Amino acid sequence: MYRFLMAALLLCTGGALQAQQPQQEDAKTFARDIQQPGVQIFDVRTAAEYNTGHLPNALQADYTNKPEFNERVKYLDKQKPVYIYCLSGGRSTKAAQWMRENGFSKVVELENGVSAWKQAGLQLEGVNVKKTQLTMDAYNKGIAKGVVLTDVGAEWCPPCKQLEPVLKTFLQSHQQVKLMKVDGGNDTDVMKAIGAKGLPTLIVYKNGKEVWRKQGVATAEELAAAVK
């Protein structure tokens, strides 16, 4: 009986250790596998690096900015595969190790990062895409009348992605509320002027006057209470 129990314990422990082993893929294999449904693509470079070009549908959190990383990683699904990368592999290896140690079931690293992706002749999205910033004049005009909900967010921000269906449902049931979008990766002048320091930031205005604000994901109930 003792030997049986020890063998079972070793088998379970060995399985757990095996599950935590680093998993890396070359660029072409990585490019194929991120096309699977349900995968999460995670860029752990800085926002500035991300804006020079990124993998398709990638979410972003700067691994070197621990408060930002720790906040955004909470909105990834631990039960779904995460395909992670950085510029050359150093930051993503450290981030992947942390994620495996904190309950993520499958984390796959892009071997040698974006550098290898480019060398394999694969294309990045968002290269040389320059957008005109939202001006403060346009912003002030947009919030001047009625009830307006400002959403400061970005398509690559994990909590912003989680907020999307909440906003959609809320706006469908509150058609009197206008939505003002501020691009958290582009409209930096407006963000600074309105004091939006994190993503997402939600602000409710009534006839140009701020009446409510929250940084982070809000519930439909919170939004409904804010616009009453």
From TrEMBL:
Thioredoxin domain ranges (all copies): 113-228
Superkingdom, natural source: Bacteria
One Pfam family matching this protein: Thioredoxin
Signal peptide: 1-19
Keywords: Signal
InterPro entries in UniProt: Rhodanese-like_dom, Rhodanese-like_dom_sf, Thioredoxin-like_sf, Thioredoxin_domain, Thiosulfate_ST/Rhodanese-like
Gene3D superfamilies the record matches: Glutaredoxin, Rhodanese-like domain
Residues annotated as domain Rhodanese: 35-126
SUPFAM superfamilies: Rhodanese/Cell cycle control phosphatase, Thioredoxin-like
Protein name: Thioredoxin fold domain-containing protein
Species this chain originates from: Chitinophaga fulva
